[in-house]
Input
Amino acid sequence: MSTAILRATAADLGARIAAGELTSVEVTTAFLDQIERVDGEVNAFLHVDRAWTLAQAEAVDARLATGENLGPLAGVPIAVKDIFCTQGVPTTCGSKILEGWLPPYDATVITRLREAGLVILGKTNMDEFAMGSSTENSAYKITGNPWALDRIPGGSGGGSAAALASFEAPLALGTDTGGSIRQPAAVTASVGVKPTYGGTSRYGVVAMASSLDQPGPCGRTVLDTALLHEVICGHDPMDSTSIDAPVPPVVEAARSGDVRGLRIGVVTELGGEGYAPGVELRFREALAALEAEGAEIVEVSCPHFSYALGAYYLIMPSEVSSNLARFDAMRYGLRVGDDGVNSVEEVMRLTRGAGFGDEVKRRIIIGTYALSSGYYDAYYGSAQKVRTLIARDFDAAFEQVDVLVSPSTPTTAFKRGERTSDPLAMYKADLCTIPSNMAGNASASFPCGLAPEDGLPVGFQVMAPPLADDRLYRVGAALERALDTARGHTLLDELAESPAGAYLNVVEA
Output
């Protein structure tokens, strides 16, 4: 029974709980047991409180017993990236400067999970303050990729992606600033979606770069991810950037997967030299599968995408410099050197020196420099002009096609430690994902097979216009169906038989 629960889709688990075939406590216990069995190797979670989690499941079962209609994911467990404020639960953002901090309130997204009856399993590991592409920048532990523990699970949300791939959770929550949902999804064979900027509330999400950050859903199937998308998205008056518009019909799109007549544009600038042969191969095969489903494939040029990486690494650090100024040792979190002798300034200096890791310090320094007098226009101002040009590229492209596509990442998962001494090489992992954050449109990564040279997962990125998030799911569902038909089995079946599926064998043993 335990293995069957772990392998099931979130949609199936929700339906069986609603029908009374399973209880939330039974399902939640199965995943908590799996975390206990395998997370010592995977290191996906930073905090798990079994009693607290089971109390949530018991409360959901009680609500369902009264006949309350909570929605299709009621009783289903979910892993949450440790950047969401969760009342009374440690929220560290993977940083020593917030070690032991207990937020006094819930993020809006957490509130919506609770209202819909989802059960929070725990908080997942991440690059410190979401700054990284490998989850190697966490102050607490390094997460492994369940497909190969010597490989990275992506970043910054590698903990959430690894929890999905190792069957420790059926759903997960992440945030995406430059690819932190999509890149981990790509390298772990999971689904990750960055909604339209403003489509999901940022209230209670610890800010990294406010004009780029966006919470989003992660799952193992397209439908599961769409169901979670519907739960967490929607207008929130507590977030001034929240869009007051209906949530696009993402679940309907995921159930349909109809791409007949859809014009799909392949971005010329996101491919070619520097992209692994296996990534290009699987990407082209996915295009052929979508064409066979009735889509029209065309080439589209977005010339300013080539400048996105450089502009992003001026805008994002500038916002980091501003946002992280609040961690000053005076109000909450870590405090070092407060001995009654040191000045306030010295306590701040000592605390920030001890509490922030190298990558965070690097980005604060870059951002502070870019915002400084005499350099603001040359660096930050110029980067914002590039951002406008990227948005115009998207606008022009979407006049020709319905969606844009590219590989999600230029390579498969690289080895742990391989890029830690070369920040520029690390930053290039987000080459394909950054343009969507700069423009604020919707985008997603869907699994499209394994690279033949290393047997590791490849991701297929889909980009849609703002508030056309449903198009992502139409394409993702069509691709999932086409690839399942070609394989003769589902992606979940393949995942269960993969190196990551070895974590299921621990249950059976």
Summary: The chain has 19 helices and eleven strands. The two ends are 13 Å apart (CA to CA).
